[in-house]
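<amino_acid_chain>
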Amino acid sequence: LATNAGIVNGHDKDETIQVWQRENEKFNKKISGPKLVNVDASTTKGIDRAKKLGLVQSGLADVVFANLNHYELTMFDSNHRARFFALFRHPIERAVSLFYYLQVAEWEKNANMYQPELASMTIEEWLFRQRRDKGDIMNILMKRFLNKTQFTSKDLEKAKDIVQTKYLVGLTSKMEESVDRFDTYFGWVDNEKRPLCQEEAIKSGFNKNPHPPVEKGSKTWNILADYLSYDLQLYDYIVQLYEEQGELFGATTVG
């Protein structure tokens, strides 16, 4: 895997591309974690480093995690092509989750990702600040696909076309089915660690951050719907596309 976890423990200073394996403590025993490539393709700086070290040409990474800003495409060439897949979450649910995550994420290296002062604010107050400061939650999907901040109906159609032609899509609301599709498409179904990963990461959800939901139709929901209007339209299309792609796997329609 090429993910931001690959550069911890000083591996961001490595001068050659390499794979390493971290150990995790569980039940007072050391267990082997995933095999990681020592690059992080989720930032522009990390992508530049990955290109310099020859990540794609090395063939060491089966999966590269990126942030949908498409700068990651510069790592690839005509002899080393990428196939995109992504999990999408309902934009309003994602924004609400972010509000609560920012309150507790003291482990984040990015200072903007830990904002404990939000614990004394309402979501509405936070949203007002986001609009005033043109914050990151405003139509974040559209921003990442198109690398701009102001949108028209033509931009929405362009984003739909990118998703339709470039991505195998999954939905966090259909996590198990989505991961099954990814595993089937990429041929990962025979991995011996697959059952353990399914149990810990998908069914149990070890990375969840429980928080109160926002009721659909409430004042907060409606404010978010206004802020995220283009993302919501794009997400509706992604749900439709998920249903259409299900025909490739003999899947049932989205419920």
